[in-house]
Fold this sequence. Notes:
GO terms for molecular function: ATP binding; phosphorelay sensor kinase activity. This protein is 52% helix and 20% strand. Among the domains are: 374-433; 440-594, Histidine kinase-like ATPase, C-terminal domain (Heat Shock Protein 90). The chain is elongated, with a radius of gyration of 55 Å. It is α+β, with helices and mostly antiparallel strands and 600 residues long. The chain has a five-stranded antiparallel sheet with strand order 2-1-5-4-3. Strands 7-6-10-9-8 form a five-stranded antiparallel sheet. A five-stranded mixed sheet has the order 12-14-15-17-16. α1 crosses α8, α3 packs antiparallel against α4 (82-99) and α11 (446-464) runs parallel beside α12 (483-503).
Amino acid sequence: MARQSRWRWRFALVAAVLVVGLAALAYMLAEDAGMDRLAGQLRDRLTLSQRAVESEIERFAYLPQVLGEDERILELLAHPSTNRVREVNLYLQTVAGHAQADVVYIIDPSGLTLSSSNWSEPSSFVGHNYSFRPYFADALVTGRGAYYAVGVTTGVPGYFLSSRIDGPEGPLGVAVVKVDMSPLERVWAEAGEMTGVADASGIVFLSGVPGWRYRPLHQLADMDRARILAERRYDGIDVAARRPLVPGSAAADLTRIFEDGAQGLALSTIVIDPEGWHHFSALPLAPVREEARLIAGIAGLLSLVCLLAGLYGFQRRQLTRFRLNQKAMLEERVAERTSALGREIEERKRAEAELRKTQDSLIHAAKLAALGRMSAAIVHEVSQPLSALDNTLAAAALHAQRGDEPKSTASITTGRDLLKRMQRTIKHLKTFSSRAQALPSDPIALAQSVTEAIEIAAPRARERGVTLRFEPCELSPLTAANAVRIEQVFINLLLNAIDATASMGNSQVLVRLQWDETRAAVHFLDSGPGIPSEIAEQIIEPFFTTKATGEGLGLGLSISRAILEDYGGSLVFSPAAGGGTCATVWLPAAIASRSLELAR
């Protein structure tokens, strides 16, 4: 057995190493292939978006040079005047509208703007000096200039194209066209393209991702920081303080970044000449990694399936033999367990029968104990009618001897009434003392059951000097139960209430009947000392009693609760309003009948 266990562990270890190794190899190969495919997609995207950027610039590349050929502009630069400024302003406004340029303006050799297409707007360029801008200096030196920056006057970014305007004696000024490139950003954003353009220093000024704009593509050099500040390229924006988009100090053809520390991206960059811009595009790495994980999982699963298939073929014969042995053992165990279950069922049936027998005996013992508590009162209750009956019969005999027939008849009638009273009392006692477990459950009127219980407990109450008062409701609720067993519950509660009330020297126990169409409540309110809180949870436990030895078995409340639970009822104790205890019997209520006229 130990040898077989060692062999299994070795096989499992070899299989795990093989499966994990193949899965890891498949992951690396799939990831490399996915990265190559991703790089191709990035190159294709860069080619398309680069052409879009170049086309946007080429749309306006001719315009500054064309403006320099216009006689009105040449006259303005050669001989500035208010009338010429107004005339050129209107002309430039018309040109900007037809060409769809953001702003078109003319600067003199000192850098002062003489005329602009936005002359009528609050953010007019007229009168502003832009000699600090590189596009102005480059145009004066080389004839042409290009520069992307945030406007110091309007705060609106744009691409500035400039051309030098020459006269017979040298440069007359510079014509500038400001191009709004934000439509490119909107197109990229709507298409979900993670594409952008950074200037020669590496500051991203166009991007389809808003969070990338005005962030360094890489870590800025000190020289670049100083030049950006001097040129006021991004006036009002502290680009140097922003976190670089790509870690490191130089761009690579294909690198990986972790945007905000969460999303993995593959980034590819090319340079747009002659501006020296860095045009880049990014794609998420998640699909590549997901595909690599899927391929690795499939490879691992296939290798595992192959290993398991081989193991299955090897162990199939042994497993068949083992199953045959197990089947025989199982049949033997099933037979043994069936026999044991049969014995267990018979034993349980005997135990249940003994339990029912013991419960019935306890209930009967509780009845006899209650009768024992009332024995003296019952003897007194019967002896009084017997004495009265003897006197009544003697009087009847005397009246008969005298021939006084009316008086004799009256005496005999009185004697019969006394005899009926004794018969009724004895009938209640016989019914109460009988074993009631075999009696059927029928709809019974709770008011009648309470009355019967009061009649049985009345002798005990008179003996202890306690008055029993019953307050029925107008409609007596019915409940499905055995009348004798319910009366036993009521008698137990009445006797406890009588004893508690008498112990305090009080004289009244109140029984109140209520119902709410779904359940009925019988309240037994005594004026005794109440139930101490330390024994409140113990009073219903079997054989728990606060009475002296010989006065009770401690079974009355426990049996009462068990009887009520058989009929879906419950027994609840609570403090009474004026002191003492309120014992409430809850029972399911059926239909209601007109309440019987009961003696109070």
